[in-house]
Write a structure and sequence with these properties.
By secondary structure, this protein is α+β, with helices and mostly antiparallel strands. The protein folds into five domains: about 260 residues, no CATH class; about 220 residues, Tetratricopeptide repeat domain (Serine Threonine Protein Phosphatase 5, Tetratricopeptide repeat, Alpha Horseshoe), CATH 1.25.40.10; about 150 residues, Sandwich (Immunoglobulin-like); about 160 residues, no CATH class; about 170 residues, Immunoglobulins (Immunoglobulin-like, Sandwich), CATH 2.60.40. It is about 30% helix and about 25% strand. The chain contains 36 helices and 52 strands. Strand 33 and strand 34 form a beta hairpin. It is elongated, with a radius of gyration of 60 Å. The termini are far apart. About 35% of the residues are buried. It holds the Pfam family Ig_TPPC8_1st.
Length: about 1300
């Protein structure tokens, strides 16, 4: 690549070029100003030559041709070092003007991250040039020293020849010529300017002849201008484009200059350059080169120079170094190098820069040394040689300038800019950005521009360094703001948005958006400020103080405008679309909002026995309507006119500070029935995109539907579920489009539900597969239908286990049309039971008391009309108008825990023309059941008495504060009879059970079962009265409660079914108990009703069976007197055997005579078999007084094995009988006693076996089918008679 075509090469070809000093009279300027141009401005477009084609020969004999060339023209007053403050003000104007030009871009979107040509501001190049020019005309650099002087006099001036002489007066010349920094003997060229508007060309010609005679023919020229007579000539804009800002509004630049004038100016500058300035520079270079070669080049001259400079190392450092005049060899070498550089002989320039660099370094003239190093680096670059050497020279120059201090700061900036362009040319953007950062000064505006340019270097580096790009843009914008360059600050921050938008760099992103919004508001651009501040409202990661600042600034900007803003992207509060729940009523209606949250599958399981055809229910509802609907509405939901559609959605405050939300409502569209059939309505997406319709005035049309409005306040980090409703009034198609709300009463926010609904996961429920989420917001509105409203009066939220209450169900129908064919089903009949209509006015406990004057008879098991668990209301019942239907319900808190009661009521429309044939009312209640009395029973058979059992009841009061009074214990059914074993006062000494108390008591239970099971089966179809035991205190005259009447009997049936499923036992030898208690009146909670309360506790399937199904008892005398002197004693006994199983039993009795079996008192208290358990009646021998000598002689005697047994079984030694199920038989026994004494008659064994004859299906369920049982101890005392 040709270095001359690079940005740095072009800059050097423009900035390091020969300078021509212009000395002119006022009349010259006056003539030029007729064109709104100064003299230099008029000539400037013709000072740049792209193909001048001039041969040049410098140090070598081989010439080269110069193609590109430029002259820089300056008035003598401008050839001086610029004032630093003035230069800064000029730079500030450049930046300000650049900001004003970009004003139109402030409202546009942020620029994308693209190539350098797309994003790099165009004014950077102009700014950098102006920055370079702040160090022009330095005394240590020759390329800014004038090469020639152009003296210009007007033909209207008096004595023009004398004016030429006066112009070069030393008092007016620049200080560079007067102070000896440069040679005052420079090339002079004389120019006479003639204004053709004066019509005196002959005078001008004479003056030119006089000038040539005085100053020489080749050095004098005449220039005629303003040849146009009408002043209407227009030139191309690019000719004097840099001067356009000073043009008069009514004139064009160069309006009096015709084409001949322009050609004359062009020829003048061409001749001045090619025939005067370039040859002059060429001759001077050759002369200086010969002089330098003679004095400084060669080994001898170099040694001589070093020897002469020896000892200057101790010279103290000076910022400007030693003073060098134009005649010093060092200055001449520098002029030689700079002239060679301007004539494009970079080899010659570089060799002279190297030569002089050592001298300046030894002289510690650091500024001159840095300047030479700088030019060496540029020469290396233009030669396209040794990149490493070029960068080394630039860095050395840069560091040397900085070492000098403040006097070298501006030179360091220029050096840095050239170094940066050098690095950019070689694609070293990262290193260029580092140099930009190093040339940042303490002055904020200068630093802002440098940081911004550094940011673009990071963007253009490979790979892109986006974070550094954005961060340096922010640093730059912050400094622009400090210098009141608001528009530039906005521009840089807007560019940073493209970096941070969509990233997780939240804090810097908030900083950028917030300050852009503030700055736009400062400029009065409130709409754009509003848009940017919207982005920082949901800054949940920020501190509370910062959040308050952001929100306050946002609201203040809105208030300044005095109007209400509408925002499509208002994110405060945050709407949780995943929480969206649409509740509407088609054939399913809800008694309360909580009912709608219950799983649809649960309701379906309850309704499957009530609804005629659940699978085809949809077609049944809309069999008529579906024929009238277009295809696009087939998947829409169904709702009824006049019934509200409820939308539940969560509003979340992401901030730590409270916010006020008001006027929250839905955005809806309703197409009437005729529009639906024409199928011309727009889609919801089109509706949302139609900004005019949405934001204009999309308010509720009172004739079509009504909307609810909600106001609320969200605390810090608070989430609130809000319910919004829309109630359609006419038939048609309804769409819910979005949500509208107002933040702090001044900003209206909109949220599109349809566009965001697809982002959430499909919720479970009744939605069909492949169902679009947007269909949840589309409804077909049908005409008004009757709707039942239901409520259960006096249903408590908490109750103790066993609590029995009377409730009333109230059903209302506000419609003028009636409903009929009512059905009802309850999910937990164990807790809630449907009563008869006659029970409506009953009160507990009076309705449950036994009627003493009426004979107790069997009550039918269930007189209510129930089918598959569905209660059918009487067919003649219909509900309409203001007359409600009241129906009794019974509640019993069965078991502790939290119970959800679900109730479904089915009803049909009385109006046959209704689109829906039926509807259902769904009701849901939660009941918390607390523990009360824990009741358990243990039953043991009595061996001394058949079909009698000892019952132990354990009661524990598990409440924390309640005390209970136990009223009665009942056994259920005619088969059992229960009785007390001790007085009531002994069982309940305190007459109540206080909180936490436990108690155990005993009862005797007697079985009254018949032997025939057929009678039992028949009797089980009716509810027979049971046996009751009063447990109330003696003075209590309360009547007993009838356990056979409803609702006690109904709840007991449910308990039997439930406990049977839990126990999973098939034993028929079971008994049910019901314990009825009442809370003490003094312990009733103050907040509850004082109405009497009753508690029932049911224990079902309590087993009475022992390990053996066969039980028996030996009956006979216990004491007998006999005269053994006459004969032995015969005693008759009988054994009663009972079969408690469901099978025929074969029982065998085997008796054994064993010697020494008499008087076994010590072993008589021991139970001989594991089959015998529980309580056994024993006759204590110690209470029997025997005074007989015979007894005394026999008791305690050990008998020999050969002695005769004192008694023998005289009957059959082995007997076997068969027993029918649940039957008993009696077997006679006899023993012969040979001597007085007390005898244990347990030396027999029963062998039993269950036969599979009559009841084979139950045999397999019996636990044990055969066994052997030893005899029970039976003590007989035989006394001798007197």
């Amino acid at each position: 690549m040709d270095p001359g075509t690079t940005p740095l090469g072009k800059m050097l070809l423009e900035e390091i070029t020969p300078v021509v000093m212009v000395l002119r009279t006022p009349l010259v300027e006056e003539a030029c100003l007729k064109n709104d141009l100064s003299f230099i401005q008029m000539l400037s477009p013709f000072c740049t030559f792209s193909n001048i084609d001039v041969p040049v020969r410098t140090s070598s004999d081989q010439p080269y041709r110069l193609q590109k060339f430029k002259l820089r023209l300056f008035y003598e007053s401008d050839i001086r070092q610029p004032n630093l403050e003035v230069a800064k003000e000029r730079l500030k104007q450049v930046i300000t003007q650049a900001g004003e030009k970009d004003n139109s871009e402030l409202c546009s979107d942020p620029p994308p991250i693209g190539s350098e040509s797309e994003i790099l501001p165009s004014w950077f190049e102009f700014f950098n040039k102006e920055l370079v020019r702040t160090v022009s005309f330095s005394d240590h650099e020759a390329f800014d020293h004038p090469v020639a002087c152009l003296l210009v006099v007007s033909s209207k001036d008096e004595q023009p020849i004398n004016r030429f002489v006066d112009l070069f007066n030393t008092n007016k010349l620049p200080s560079l010529l007067n102070d000896g920094a440069m040679d005052p003997k420079i090339l002079k060229h004389y120019l006479l300017v003639h204004d053709n508007q004066d019509r005196s060309s002959e005078k001008a010609t004479k003056l030119l002849t006089e000038m040539k005679n005085t100053f020489g023919t080749n050095d004098c020229h005449m220039l005629c201008i303003n040849s146009s007579q009408d002043g209407q000539i227009e030139h191309q804009d690019s000719l004097w484009a840099p001067c356009k800002s000073v043009a008069s509004p009514n004139q064009h630049l160069g309006c009096l200059l015709n084409i001949d004038d322009l050609n004359e100016i062009k020829d003048l500058m061409q001749e001045l350059s090619s025939k005067h300035i370039i040859p002059y520079m060429e001759q001077k270079v050759r002369a200086l080169n010969q002089q330098v070669s003679a004095t400084r080049k060669g080994f001898r001259n170099q040694i001589k120079n070093l020897w002469w400079r020896k000892g200057k190392e101790d010279t103290p450092d000076s910022p400007s170094g030693l003073m060098y005049t134009f005649s010093s060899i060092e200055s001449q070498i520098r002029v030689l190098g700079d002239y060679a550089f301007m004539l494009r002989d970079y080899e010659l320039a570089l060799s002279n820069y190297r030569l002089i660099s050592t001298d300046y370094k030894l002289d510690k003239a650091w500024k001159r040394y840095a300047g030479v190093q700088e030019m060496m680096g540029l020469a290396y670059f233009m030669l396209d040689q040794s990149r490493k050497e070029a960068e080394y020279c630039m860095e050395n120059a840069f560091n040397t300038y900085l070492k000098i201090g403040s006097s070298g700061q501006q030179n360091a900036t220029r050096c840095g800019l050239w170094w940066i362009e050098m690095l950019k040319t070689r694609d070293q953007y990262k290193e260029a950005a580092t140099v930009y950062f190093r040339i940042c000064s303490e002055e904020s505006l200068h630093s802002a521009v440098m940081l911004e340019q550094a940011s673009y270097c990071y963007l253009l580096s490979q790979p892109r360094m986006l974070h550094k790009y954005g961060f340096h843009l922010v640093l730059s914008g912050d400094r622009y703001k400090k210098c009141d360059q608001i528009k530039h600050a906005i521009r840089t921050y807007r560019s940073a948005i493209s970096v941070y938008k969509g990233t997780t760099w939240s804090y810097i992103k908030d900083h950028v958006y917030f300050h852009i919004g503030q700055w736009y508001a400062f400029l009065g651009m409130y709409d754009v400020a509003f848009t940017h501040l919207l982005e920082v409202l949901t800054c949940s990661h920020q501190s509370k103080t910062t959040q308050e600042l952001f929100l306050r600034e946002f609201l203040q900007i809105v208030q300044r405008t005095g109007k209400t803003f509408e925002a499509l992207k208002l994110q405060l509060p945050v709407i949780n679309i995943s929480s969206l729940k649409v509740v509407f009523e088609d054939h399913r209606t809800y008694a309360s909002p909580a009912v709608a949250s219950v799983r649809e599958s649960l309701w379906r399981s309850l309704e499957e026995d009530m609804i005629p055809s659940l699978s085809t229910a949809r077609t049944n509802w809309l069999e008529l309507q579906s024929k009238l609907l277009p295809k696009k509405y087939k998947e829409s939901n169904i709702c009824v006119a006049g019934e509200a559609i409820k939308v539940d959605i969560e509003f979340e405050n992401p901030l730590k500070i409270p916010i006020s939300i008001s006027s929250v409502s839905l955005i809806c569209e309703l197409s009437e029935l005729d529009e639906m059939t024409s199928d011309t309505s727009h889609s919801a997406t089109e509706l949302w995109n139609d900004e005019h319709k949405l934001l204009g005035d999309m308010s509720s049309d009172a004739s079509l539907f009504t909307l609810s409005e909600v106001d609320f306040t969200l605390g810090g980090d608070e989430t609130k579920l809000v319910q919004l409703t829309v109630t359609p009034k006419v038939e048609g198609s309804l769409r819910i489009v979005g949500i509208r709300w107002k933040l702090s009463g001044s900003v209206v926010g909109y949220y599109s539900l349809e566009s965001n609904l697809g982002k959430r996961k499909t919720a479970k429920g009744r939605r069909k597969p492949k169902h679009s989420p947007g269909n949840d917001l589309k409804f077909v509105v049908i005409k008004s239908l009757p709707k039942l409203e239901g409520f259960i009066h006096s249903l408590p939220e908490k109750a103790y286990a066993g609590d029995l209450r009377h409730l009333v169900l109230e059903l209302r129908n506000q419609s003028e049309f009636s409903v009929k064919n009512l059905k009802m089903k309850i999910s937990h009949p164990r807790f809630l039971n449907i009563g008869d209509h006659e029970d409506l006015n009953l009160e507990i406990p009076d309705c449950l008391e036994k009627k003493t004057n009426v004979e107790q008879t069997d009550v039918p098991a269930d007189s209510k009309k129930v089918s598959h668990g569905v209660f059918l209301f009487p067919e003649d019942i219909s509900i309409e108008g203001e007359r409600p239907l009241l129906w009794p319900l019974w509640l019993r808190a069965a078991v502790p825990g939290t119970i959800s009661l679900y109730i479904v009521i089915y009803y049909e429309m009385g109006d046959a023309s209704s689109v829906m044939r039926y509807r259902t009312l769904r009701m849901h209640y939660n009941l918390q059941v607390l523990p009360s009395l824990d009741v358990s029973f243990t039953i043991s058979p009595c061996p001394s008495k058949l079909q009698e059992f000892l019952v132990r009841m354990d009661v524990v009061n598990k409440t924390s504060s309640e005390s209970f009074q136990v009223n009665q214990l009942s056994s259920v059914g005619w088969q059992w009879e229960i009785s007390l074993l001790q007085a009531v006062d002994a069982i309940f000494p305190s007459q109540s059970l206080i909180a936490g108390q436990a108690l155990s008591c005993f009862f005797m239970l007697k079985s009254l079962r018949k032997s025939s099971r057929t009678e039992e089966k028949i009797s089980s179809l009716s509810r027979s009265p049971g046996s009751d035991v009063r447990l109330a205190p003696e003075g209590n005259k309360d009547a007993l409660f009838d356990i056979c009447c409803s609702p006690l009997a109904d709840f007991h049936d449910c308990e039997r079914l439930q406990q049977h499923e839990l126990s999973n036992q098939e034993d028929t030898n079971t008994v049910d108990f019901i314990l009825i208690s009442r809370p003490l009146k003094s312990d009733i909670n103050p907040g509850t009703s004082d109405a009497p309360r009753l508690f029932s506790h049911h224990a079902c399937h309590c087993s009475t069976a022992s390990a053996s199904p066969i039980s028996w008892v030996v009956a006979g005398p216990r004491t007998k007197c006999h005269d053994f002197s006459v004969s032995f004693c015969e005693i008759n006994l009988r054994m009663i055997i009972y079969n408690a199983s469901d099978a025929v039993a074969s029982v065998g009795i085997n008796t054994h005579d064993s010697p020494g079996g008499n008087v076994q008192l010590s072993d008589g208290n021991t139970v001989a078999s594991g089959n015998q358990a529980g309580w056994h009646s024993l006759s204590p021998v110690d209470d029997i007084k025997i005074n007989s000598d015979v007894l005394g002689s026999n008791v305690g005697k050990s008998q020999s094995p050969e002695s005769v047994s004192p008694f023998i079984w005289s009957g059959t030694s082995s007997t076997r009988v068969q027993l029918e199920p649940m039957s008993s038989t009696e077997i006679p026994l006899q023993i012969c006693v040979f001597s007085p004494g007390t005898y244990d008659l347990s030396n027999y064994v029963l062998n039993w076996n269950l036969l599979h004859v009559n009841n084979e299906e139950n045999v397999g369920k019996t636990k044990q089918t055969s066994g052997t049982s030893p005899g029970y101890p039976y003590y007989l005392t035989v006394l001798p008679s007197d």
